[in-house]
Amino acid sequence: MTTTCAAFPIEKATRLYEGGLSLADVGKECGCCTETVRKHLMAAGIERRHGRQPIKVDEEEAVRMYLAGARAPKISAKMGISDKVIYRILRLHDVKIKPIEKSIILPMNEVESLYAWGMTCDEIGEEYGCCGGTVLNRMTEADIPRRNQGYTELDVDEDKIVEMYLDGVGINRIGKVLEVSGYPVARILRKHGVTIKKFPTPNFVTLSKTAIEFLSGEIIGDGCLHRSKGSIGVVYGHTSKHRSYLEWLSGVLSSFGIAQGGNITRQVHPKMNDAVTYHYSSLTYRKDLLQLWKRWYPNGKKHVPEDLVLTPLMVRQWICGDGSLTREKGMILCTYGFAVPEVELLRDKLIALGFKTVRWAGSNVLYIWKKSVPALLEWMGPSPISCFDYKWDLGGCH
Q: Is beta strand 203-205 parallel, antiparallel or unpaired with respect to 275-287?
């Protein structure tokens, strides 16, 4: 590789050479051979070193800065010398070199899913704000196998692949039929001029403390977080018999930064005497909503976090979904979807707040005693929407 005189970075080469690097090391930094560096330095009147000359640097200051937490690149930039000289000084003073920390930490489960879907390292890097080389290095460290690079030699019916894709079969499913990853399938589709549908890019949302409390209450009740296999985002879903509640809920979530995805749908259940329910789904989100999913669904199934702290807002939304007053004006919370230890955990947290609560073993639901219900309703505040006012009505019978 030859570097022309006009393009040769003489100032950089001079600084590195005078900082203690050898001609060969300067050549590596400047992208040229040793002889090219030597010629340009001579032409610039830079005196050639003969053997290793001591570099004038305050070694004690370099050691002090390093022990105080400064990294070698920062010290070398301040002193105008190379990183290698700093490391040499540190070793001379018997200073233990700190391991270089990775500046970019990638969620490798998501990276593996995207890679298996067919995205390249460069495309994954664009998703996480780093280069493809960083992605490849992290994959190697995580023992994620690379795809077969001989995809062009696959003995497959390419026309059939194109036909399947245009008929709506996904790239991953086609790959499973061929027993390959999605990448060679995508290459064949591009080869035939087929426009590949973009992988759905999730939105990012930062949730306030109020939003997290609100959503946590909904999740204990009728709300859920859903993450499809291979997806890097999460969808919030909610089913209710009250369409007006879902319309109100959509507005609240929108104020938190979570937008509705599509329309609220209606479903009739013939096996339940034609009962009607409505369903809301949000767009796909990452960041805080993804963290909330990881907290409530540690193994893909909803679980109550042990460190959950019940708040008035959280319990209010929980009761909107799962609460109901009995004729005797006690409060039932339909918790049968959780395991017994988790229901007992919720019971204990309500008791700790001063509300007498028991678990009915037969149905695995919670019952808040009649004498505690008025205090509970006062603690939570009024019903947030009229369709649930009856759950706060201690005067009527429902």
A: parallel
